[in-house]
Amino acid sequence: MQHGKYRFIVGFLALPLGLYALFVVWPFIQSIYYSFTDWTGLSPEFKMVGFDNYSRILDDEIFWKSLQHSLLFALLLPVVTISLALFFAFMINVGGRKRRNGPVVSGVRGSSFYKIVYFFPQVLSIAIVALLFAFAYNPDSGAINSILRGVGLDGVQPLWLGDPDLALWAVMAVLVWSTVGFFVVLFSAGMASIPAEMYEAALLDGAGRATTFFRITLPLLWDTVQSGWVYMGILALGAESFAVVQIMTTGPGGPDYSTTVMVLYVYQKAFRDGQAAYATTIGVALLVVTLAFAAVVMRLGRRERLEY
Amino acid sequence: MKTTQTPAPVPAESGAPVTKADIPPGPPLREKKEGTVLNAFSHGILVLWAFMVVMPLLWAVMTSFKDDRSIFSSPWSLPDTLHFDNWSRAWTEANMSDYFLNTVLVVGGSLVGTLVLGSMAAYVLARFDFPGNRFIYYLFIGGMSFPIMLALVPLFYVVNNMGLLNTIHGLILVYIAYSLPFTVFFLTAFFRTLPTSVAEAAFVDGASHSRTFFQIMLPMAKPGLISVGIFNFLGQWNQYMLPTVLNTDPDKRVLTQGLVQLAVSQGYKGDWSGLFAGLVMAMLPVLAAYIIFQRQVVQGLTAGALK
User: Does ipTM top 0.90?
Assistant: First the structure.
């Protein structure tokens, strides 16, 4: 029986673990190794160059630009997205006024409708969302500028994605648009598990909405907010920002690299410029930024766990 | 909308409101007024956001039925006649049908593979004690937090060397590998919550370990499989970065890739209406599926972040 058990374990683990090791773990280890070489990716030959790639990063202006933008994505996007989502989730779940014979705590009228609609963008591919908004932002025939014309703002016709000062914000707005709904639903699930007596007690004490939110909802929801924050930050540093920046901005990377982000820069160095080793070095920098971000958020957000 | 939730149960004459200490008690009349303004304001924002979510989607649907000229001249007007030809052109000439088929093949294959392999690994990790169990578990979990882009450069060459570049089955294998971390994480937790007694009884009755797994445990794990299945389905259907790097053959493109390529090549010969039709075509199935299976989708997706 013992023998059978181990044969079973090996049999069941071999395939998944093998695939995972081959396509995820092994390339990951390789990339750290490659960052110490001068590999172009085009030919199999390369030699070790020590920390050359890392010192090259220090003088690479575009790298610093992309780092700056990536940090902005990781810090500002979650703040805006999560704040909006907290407000919506609170209104939807707690913000309603008491109806006769109804539960003490309830959402505003039509809250289930809002929850369904807000979630729409989440099921769409970020690539498709990016394409859609690239058209909407079109300065001449896009939906946004034509709305501005429609309300009499003929003079205000920004170039949006073509304007180096605006492009980054326009791109970030799309990510907010596409992610808020997810957090509304996530926070709603969290709020639903807060006992109604707590709200009841607060109401009896005469607490208004704002007080209820800051004294009860937010502290009890803090764990969810924090993990949501880390989750959003990792997304904003990685796959999501890659798709929006690559698809939406010209170049890609925007006018004068005004929208480039670290993931996009890795991609360009590896697959456009034939500098695979340098690309993996930027990738390592991205890994460091991601881990540091997660660590900082976890540390700053640490609070005493509330039991309820 | 006259009162907010500042509640009636605490009328002014009900004695000393000791408990109100935290909140500065304003004159009731002003409080009421402020509440109304705030209320209208909050409702307004909720409605506004719903508009902002729906309008771009409606705009896309509308545009997909217009001819090229009116797309540019009047972006917000309704189509004069419904140009269904945009849709048929996109479906046939712009290869949307091929992209659809490729996507269905890739996602179908990788979804089944992810669920089977993921649940096998998770079951073993959750239910059996053996040296290295923890190490393998954390090896899988670690994959959730690192940037895929870092591995993508060497991955390209691994896939290339195996002769799997630009193939459907190659893409399937890679999708499975990158879906495993979350799937294993989620299902391990799920298998731990299932009762052991049933499996033990089956085993005592002479069922082998694998038979116990496939005939007893897997059916019991159905709710978990559905949640994680929806999560993976959406993730794989919407995947853009992996195919962009590993799948450069125009005939093998998946939906997201194909659409972006169409847009890059100026909406194939400047056919913007066809491009919009393609865009809507790619959006509708998932939106429809979401509206129908709304509850399961939401549970599946949020379970991911909450656990």
Answer: no
Number of domains observed in the structure of chain B: 1
Do A17 and A55 fall within a single domain?
A: no
Is A157 found in the same domain as A20?
A: no
pLDDT in tens, B182-208: 999 999 988 988 887 887 888 888 888
Residues A133 and A279 in one domain: yes
SS3 A37: strand
CATH number at residue B173: 1.10.3720.10
B57 vs A247: CB contact, 8 Å cut-off?
no
pLDDT value at residue A228: 87
CB within 8 Å: B120 and A12:
yes
- Chain B residue numbers with beta carbons less than 8 Å from the beta carbon of A294 are 145
Best of A115, A128, A247, A280 to mutate (most B CBs within 10 Å, chain B): A128
H or E stretch at B17: none
**Residue indicated by tokens 């920390």:** A51
Range of the domain at A23: 1-35
Take residue B24 and report the two structure tokens written for it.
């500065």
Could you tell me if B275 and B60 are in contact, meaning their C-beta atoms sit under 8 angstroms apart? no
For A88-106, how does the pLDDT look when each residue is reduced to its tens digit (9 = 90+)?
999 888 876 655 556 666 7
Give chain A's domain count. 2
Q: Is the pLDDT of residue A286 over 80?
A: yes
Asked whether the predicted pLDDT for residue B241 surpasses 50, the reply is: yes
User: What is the distance between the alpha carbons of residues A201 and A293, in angstroms, rounded to a whole number?
Assistant: 38
